[in-house]
Design a protein that fits this description.
Elements (H helix, E strand, L loop, with lengths): L1 H17 L10 E7 L6 H22 L2 E3 L2 E3 L1 E7 L4 H13 L5 E3 L4 H13 L4 E3 L15 E3 L9 H10 L5 E7 L2 H16 L3 E8 L7 H9 L4 E5 L2 H13 L6 E5 L5 H7 L7 E4 L9 H7 L8 H12 L7 H20 L4 H10 L2 E3 L2 E3 L13 E6 L2 E6 L15 H5 L7
Parallel strand pairs: 1-4, 1-5, 5-6, 6-7, 8-9, 8-10, 10-11
Antiparallel strand pairs: 2-3, 12-15, 13-14, 15-16
Length: 423
C-alpha cells in the first residue's frame, strides 16, 4: 500500500501546482483523441477508433454508463484526425483540452506520436492514456499523468521464452537477431534479460540495419552458432526476408518467432508453406480465451464486453465486415480501464483518476491490466501466435490458447515437400 500512498500524494501535490485540468459537469464523461485516420498509421488508427467506439457503446448501452456520485453518466467521444503527424498531435491535444474540455486524452498510435503529446498533457495536468506506444522510454521521462494499456516493448518475447522453457527443458541455446531500431532493440534487451533469468544461453546476438535487403552474412554466422531456437525481427519487410533466407540457407531450428511480421495474414500470403510453424507475439488476437471464468480462476475482477460482443460492436462502429485486430482491442480495453478508474476515484479529476489507475487490477476480453508506479503496463501478457496449416493459432499462454503449439516446427525441406505444422 506504500506504492498507492506515494501515487495518491504525488498527484494531489501536482494538482495544486499545475492547477486542476478542465472538467465537465457530471452529465457526461468526455474522452478526447487525436486519432491517426490518415497518413502512415491510418490502418491502425481506423482499428483504434472503431475499438474505442465499440467499448463506449457497450458502456453506455449495456453497462448503463459510468457510476459517478450516485448517477449513471454516459461517455462522450471527441476525436480529430492528426494525420499521423507530430505537429498536429500537439495542437489537437491543446484544442481537446481547452476548447472541448475533455476529461481524458487518449494518445495517438505509435510510440513517437505518443511521446510527442506527453509534454502537452503533462503541462496541463491532464490524464493521458497510451494504447499504441510500446517504447519503454516513454515511461522513463518522469511523466506523472501517462498510463499505458499496450504492453511494453521489453515484454514482447517473454511469453515465447516461457513457453519453450516449459515444453522443452533441453533447449538451452537461443539466437537473438533484431532490426537496428529503437523499438526492436528494446525487444531484444527484454528478451536477453528474460532468457538469462530462465537459464538460456545466448549463443548469437546481433542487429541488422533498417531497410536491409540481404541477411545472408548475418544468418550464416547465426547458423554456425547452432541455436536451438531463434527470436528476432523488426518490421514486416525484414521479417519476410529473415524467414525466406533462413529457408534458402537451410537453417532449421526448433522454433522461430519474429516480431511485427509473423502475426500478419500478409506474412503467410508472401511465404506460403515456408511460414508454417513460425510464431510471433501479439497483444491480442481474435479467438483469445479471456473471459469471466478465467478472471475468477486467477482472482481478478471482470468487466465486459465478452469477445463476441466486442467483435459485433466493433463491426457496427466500423460500418463494415472487418475483424478487429490488437490495435482495436487495446484501444477498447483502455475505455474500460478509464471507466473503472473513474468509478474507483468517484471523480473525473485527472489526478484522482490517475491515482486510481495505479491501484487498478482487472481482466477484460483483452486480458489482464495492472500498471507500475510509472504508469507502464505490467499486467497484460502477450499472446503467441503460430501458423498451422495456413491458419493463425494462439498457442501461448495456456489460458488463452485456441490450440496446442507445433514444436519443434517442421524443417524447411519438410515444408517444401508439403508438410504442415500440426501439434
Amino acid at each position: 500500500m506504500k506504492k498507492t500512498a506515494r501515487i495518491a500524494l504525488g498527484f494531489f501535490l501536482l494538482a495544486i501546482v499545475l492547477g486542476q485540468a478542465p472538467t465537465q459537469a457530471a452529465d457526461e464523461v468526455s474522452i478526447g483523441h487525436p486519432a491517426c485516420l490518415s497518413g502512415k498509421y491510418a490502418k491502425a488508427g481506423e482499428q483504434a477508433v472503431a475499438g474505442i467506439k465499440a467499448c463506449i457503446d457497450w458502456v453506455n448501452n449495456e453497462y448503463g454508463g459510468v457510476s459517478l456520485k450516485g448517477n449513471k453518466v454516459p461517455l462522450k467521444y471527441t476525436y480529430y484526425d492528426c494525420e499521423s503527424n507530430k505537429e498536429s498531435v500537439t495542437s489537437l491535444i491543446g484544442r481537446l483540452i481547452t476548447v472541448e474540455k475533455v476529461n481524458v486524452v487518449f494518445a495517438p498510435y505509435s510510440s513517437g506520436l505518443t511521446l510527442r503529446g506527453a509534454p502537452v498533457t503533462e503541462a496541463r495536468g491532464m490524464l493521458y492514456m497510451d494504447h499504441g506506444g510500446a517504447n519503454n522510454k516513454i515511461f522513463q521521462q518522469g511523466f506523472q499523468y501517462i498510463v499505458q494499456t499496450i504492453g511494453p516493448a521489453s515484454s514482447y518475447h517473454r511469453g515465447t521464452l516461457d513457453m519453450i522453457h516449459k515444453i522443452d527443458p533441453a533447449a538451452k541455446k537461443v539466437a537473438l537477431a533484431y532490426e537496428d531500431s529503437e523499438f526492436a532493440k528494446m525487444v531484444m534487451e527484454g528478451a536477453e534479460a528474460h532468457a538469462k533469468e530462465l537459464g538460456f544461453q545466448i549463443v548469437f546476438k546481433r542487429t541488422y540495419p533498417k531497410g536491409v535487403t540481404d541477411l545472408t552474412p548475418l544468418l550464416s554466422a547465426m547458423k554456425a552458432a547452432k541455436p536451438d531456437f531463434v527470436l528476432g525481427g523488426g518490421h514486416f519487410e525484414d521479417g519476410q526476408l529473415f524467414n525466406r533466407q533462413m529457408a534458402d540457407l537451410g537453417i532449421d531450428t526448433k522454433a522461430l518467432s519474429l516480431i511485427a511480421a509473423a502475426t500478419l495474414p500478409a506474412f503467410y500470403e508472401a511465404l506460403d508453406s515456408m511460414a508454417e510453424g513460425v510464431m510471433g507475439p501479439s497483444h491480442w488476437e481474435y479467438g483469445v480465451k479471456y473471459a469471466e471464468p478465467e478472471a475468477q480462476r486467477v482472482g481478478l475482477p471482470w468487466i465486459g464486453p465478452s469477445q463476441d460482443e466486442f467483435v459485433a460492436l466493433f463491426k457496427k462502429a466500423a460500418g463494415k465486415e472487418m475483424i478487429p485486430d490488437y490495435h482495436a482491442a487495446e484501444a477498447g480495453a483502455q475505455v474500460l480501464a478509464y471507466v473503472l478508474a473513474v468509478e474507483k476515484a468517484g471523480s473525473v479529476d485527472p489526478a484522482k483518476v490517475r491515482a486510481s489507475l495505479g491501484e487498478l487490477e482487472f481482466m477484460s476480453f483483452y486480458g489482464g491490466w495492472d500498471v507500475d508506479e510509472n504508469g507502464m503496463q505490467v499486467g497484460h501478457d502477450m499472446v503467441d501466435v503460430q501458423w498451422q496449416k495456413g491458419e493463425r493459432v494462439i498457442v501461448w499462454p495456456e489460458e488463452a490458447q485456441t490450440g496446442k503449439g507445433c514444436y519443434p516446427m517442421p524443417t524447411f525441406d519438410e515444408k517444401a515437400k508439403g508438410k504442415v505444422a500440426l501439434p
